Amino acid sequence: MDTVQAYIKTHKDRFLNELIELLKIPSISADSAYKNDVLKAAEAVKTSLENAGCDTVEICKTDGYPIVYGEKTIDPNLPTVLVYGHYDVQPPDPLDLWHSPPFEPVIKTTNKHPEGAIFARGACDDKGQMYMHVKAMEFMTSTNQLPCNVKFMIEGEEEVGSPNLAIFVKNNQDKLKNDVILISDTGMIANDTPSITTGLRGLSYVEVEVTGPNRDLHSGLYGGAVANPINVLTKMIASLHDENNHITIPGFYDKVEVLSDEERAEMAKAPFNLDNYKNALDIADVYGETGYSTNERTSIRPTLDVNGIWGGYTGEGAKTVIASKAYAKISMRLVPHQDWEEITQLFQTHFESIAPKAVKVKVTPHHGGQGYVTPIDSIGYQAASKAYQDAFGKTPIPQRSGGSIPIVSLFEQELKSKTILMGFGLDSDAIHSPNEHFGVWNYLKGIETIPLFYKYFTELSK
Ligand code: BES
Ligand code: MN
Ligand code: MN
Fold this sequence. Notes:
Elements: H1 4-23, H2 35-51, E1 56-60, E2 67-72, E3 80-86, E4 106-108, E5 117-119, H3 127-142, E6 149-155, H4 165-171, E7 180-183, E8 195-200, E9 202-211, E10 217-218, H5 229-238, H6 261-267, H7 274-281, H8 294-297, E11 303-311, E12 321-322, E13 325-334, H9 340-353, E14 360-369, E15 372-373, H10 379-392, E16 397-400, H11 407-415, E17 419-421, E18 437-439, H12 440-461
Parallel strand pairs: 3-6, 3-7, 7-17, 8-16
Antiparallel strand pairs: 1-2, 2-6, 4-5, 5-18, 8-15, 9-13, 9-14, 10-12, 11-13
Helix pairs in contact: 1-3, 1-12, 3-12, 4-11, 10-12
This protein binds ligand BES and manganese (II) ion (2 copies).
One manganese (II) ion is lined by residues 86, 125-126, 158, 185.
């Protein structure tokens, strides 16, 4: 019988080439100019699932981009694994910072990836990681080693907040029934330090608009007497953190989960080198909430960050003007028990309350979602841990991530099952940034680890 290592060795080039073809499709969900490409990526995923041995694969229409659904049932008495992933990608800009075009994948070596990495938008987030599951499925079906039932749900709107997936999940509870949900859309500590993500942060994303005078004004004739919306907006934003980098919105921390000293000590055991962290980012120092380590600041603590700010004259040269309006996009990363809709409301009330009478303020909520934490004593976590133990020769470290996959908490709520986050990316893979990449070693290691998860999950479910 073929071992997964032997199978990967034989089919390695094809596995890489198929992923490269998928990465050539610019499936940017945020930009409607790419609509046909997003739809094309859905078709490509459908074909790949058919080729991987699914019994049925369908393209499920939604009000937005479709969800590709596939399944293979071998015995209704056996457990069912539901795999979730996304075929849409982030916009690639700023384009001039890419060393090769984002949708013309190339393989190059890096310090972290001496065996090469595929450079392309979506290589790691999430086409590369999603496709590991398709190839693991191919291995299991073609060598008769699929130990349980499988369902795939691959969406095309994750990067824009999954507006239609929630509706799909609510309306298809029976179809999506499963014993565990498996997702590869996160990262791990390092190639020689495997880890399993046990937490995700929630998110509240808002846009704010500050309006001063009803038209742009000459900054000499009116300056000093009229509120400048940009001055006001920046001052309001600056006031959202105090001198300890604590967020000042009343009630913001009320529901934040407080970890015990033991839990914090346990977390602090995960390997982390502050100098390497600073060097990798070319920063002289880290910056954040007083009283917490860097790892804590990006996992168990909530944050507030301006993601974009604009207004006034930003063209070449100088223009003396007081703009009528100023804008900012703000994200708040949340931790378990904070409710994203409540936080959005608290933000709105506070932001409106701190505005001087001289301006008007409008807060527009975008999207959001709840955070997630998963216990490590579940069958799913134990199966994943054993799979990593076999594939990496090391016990994986449980680690909470700072990123968000809002749909995970909805899965728990609607489908009543736990999600296991087996991510194989590295923080340095530059997801959402120019020059995103995914290690060839990581891609193949993922394909090797996934069938082991199925095997152990089926065994432990007996
Ligand atoms: N795959 C990421 C989330 C992620 C990456 C979690 C790495 C943990 C480690 C996902 O595609 C993503 O980008 N999510 C967005 C939120 C979404 C609502 C747009 C995020 O975290 O900003
Ligand atoms: Mn993703
Ligand atoms: Mn993403």
